[in-house]
Amino acid sequence: MPVELRKEGNLAIITLNRPEARNAINGEMAQTMEACLDEFENDPDLWCGILTHEGPVFCAGADLKEIAAGNGGALGTERGGFAGIVKRERNKPLIAAIKGMATAGGCEISLAVDLIVASEETVFGLAEVKRSLVAGAGGLFRLPRALGMATAMEVIMTGEPLSSQRAYELGMVNRVVPTDSVMDEARAMAAKITANAPLAVQASRRVASRSFMDDDEALWKASGREFAGLAKTEDYQEGPRAFIEKRAPVWKGR
Question: What is the CATH class of 3-194?
């Protein structure tokens, strides 16, 4: 399968597996990505995910052969948009573990997740203008949010790549590590997330992910709704109980 999901306890490892084409997105990849995200979201025992890749390139973007053949519309799904992910509504945290280049649509996929661990050799970029294309999978508005307007405009209009170190300095990337350490670092980050109450993580993520799009009034209301919903769960009772009893909490995700 061009996108595969493997379970490791409460962690889902989702892997782009079309290395012979630099993980360029075709219709089958978009469909299997959506299926993997469905499984991830619907399994109550999966609390966090890592999106990674086989081969030296994370994702080179859209399969240009498909676009040249007039099949550009098949490179996404109705629910998820391009690659089955860039427009996908999600509840659970997803970390990108990027060991190679993430350009064009590959950069836009990385911008659609929650956290990024990248290698020292990784570069990001939106090179669409070099091919008389437009970055239509969210990069034109997500990149300015992630980097700031000045740097994002430079990346978008020149089509030149951005190093992982510079992306880290500007706040787009969470960690930059040697290539051999990328998955270990992503797993360590995931372990810190899954040590927390999963429903509280999901509720917090839903509000925080809207912070650059909604106004304060809407965000106050959303925070209140999430807190009220969480108060009805078993884990809400377990957190204070474990603290009082001086033990580690046992989360159930319900």
Answer: alpha beta
